[in-house]
Write a structure and sequence with these properties.
Number of strands: 11
Number of domains: 2
Helix content: 40-55%
Shape: elongated
CATH class of the largest domain: Alpha Beta
CATH architecture of the largest domain: 4-Layer Sandwich
Strand content: 15-25%
Largest sheet: 6 strands, antiparallel
Radius of gyration: 29 Å
Distance between the termini: 62 Å
């Protein structure tokens, strides 16, 4: 109640000032003798009065619109910080870094999503891209992330997590269809046409073994030493939405994330970014430049990539983009090197990487 009363004077002032200026201009025109004269001086004075009133109205409206825009951006930023909550810098021995940039600067929100959660089944991560960007894609992002945050703890199998995300998307699209077309008689089983979400699910075990399910999303890059390679080259499943999932999708083994290695997950807005001459941004080439410098940490990778992206596009990207970096900072344990008293001896061999592509 107090807030409502406090806002009333502001609204009265906002409406009263333009009304008062308009009333003053009309009063001057009707009641002032100078306004009735046809001399050059009288016309100059009348024009000056109306110019001042018009300028005041324009300035007032502009300030009101700027205040409203700032309020909308604050609300959008607060909503985004809750939905795409800041990730901790470390999750179960993995260093984590993430950032996103919306193509719709006025909305301050985008259609890209990501999350990393430590579970009893391993560290599970998701990154995805909703068709479209800005406010329109915000509800779909909320549906996918809400389902993921619950399913990763409940489902031991990554394929069941993916099915949960698919059902959440279908339910959200049905509800949105009813809200947008209440009189169209749309059947509840028919979701909104042409809506889809690309999704990549990753599971990283305690031993560093990686499993993945990919629905139309770009494969991440694996940074190992000075080598930058795609994590896998297998054809992904179709995006969520327009096509049904296999009854039991099988996660793809993708090798190991060894200590010191990093994964760079991204949305297609990164590699689709173009410069003034229409050339696409080469993420792999940018990462090759990053691994030449040490130390390689998630913050330095993100900072280098965003600097290169903004330089490439001159700050005018056409699509939302997001980056998620996971680095294995776990201490390797060599059980065979333990002595009789349990003290560790230096390991003489380095575990070999096995990639199943």
């Amino acid at each position: 109640m107090f807030r409502f009363k406090a806002r009333v004077p502001r609204k009265v002032v906002a409406m009263g000032l333009p009304t008062a200026w308009g009333a003053m201009a009309i009063t001057y025109k009707l009641a002032c003798p100078l306004a009735q004269q046809d001399s050059l001086g009288a016309r100059v004075v009348t024009s000056a009065v109306f110019f001042a009133v018009g300028t005041g109205l324009v300035v007032h409206v502009r300030q009101a619109l700027l205040r409203e825009l700032q309020q909308v951006r604050r609300v959008a930023g607060a909503a985004q910080s809750v939905l795409l909550r800041p990730l901790p810098s470390r999750i179960d021995g993995l260093s984590v870094g993430a950032a996103q940039l919306s193509a719709d600067r006025g909305a301050c929100v985008g259609g890209d999503l990501y999350e990393v959660i430590a579970t009893e089944h391993g560290v599970r991560a998701v990154i995805g891209d909703v068709r479209g960007h800005g406010i329109a894609a915000f509800g779909t992002v909320a549906a996918i992330l809400g389902s993921f945050r619950e399913a990763v703890h409940d489902e031991p199998d990554l394929g069941r997590v993916l099915h949960r995300l698919d059902r959440a998307l279908a339910r959200h699209l049905r509800e949105r269809a009813r809200d947008e077309h209440p009189a169209a008689g749309r059947e509840p089983g028919n979701p909104v046409a042409e809506e889809f979400v690309t999704v990549l699910l990753l599971e990283i075990g305690r031993d560093g073994e990686i499993s993945a399910l990919n629905c139309g999303h770009p494969w991440p890059y694996l940074l190992s030493g000075t080598t930058v390679e795609p994590l896998a080259r297998a054809d992904p499943l179709p995006p969520l939405g327009p096509f049904p999932l296999p009854p039991e999708p099988t996660p793809l083994p993708c090798g190991s994330l060894l200590p010191g290695d990093s994964l760079v997950l991204y949305t297609d807005g990164v590699e689709d970014a173009r410069d003034a001459r229409g050339r696409f941004f080469s993420l792999q080439a940018a990462l090759i430049g990053v691994v030449r410098h040490h130390p390689i940490t998630p913050p330095t990778i993100l900072r280098s990539l965003f600097t290169a992206l903004l330089r490439h596009t001159r700050g005018r990207q056409a699509d939302d983009l997001a980056l998620l970096v996971l680095r294995n900072d776990r201490t390797p344990v060599d059980c065979g090197s333990l002595g009789a008293r349990g003290t560790a001896r230096p390991a003489t061999t380095h575990p070999q990487r096995t990639n199943h592509l």
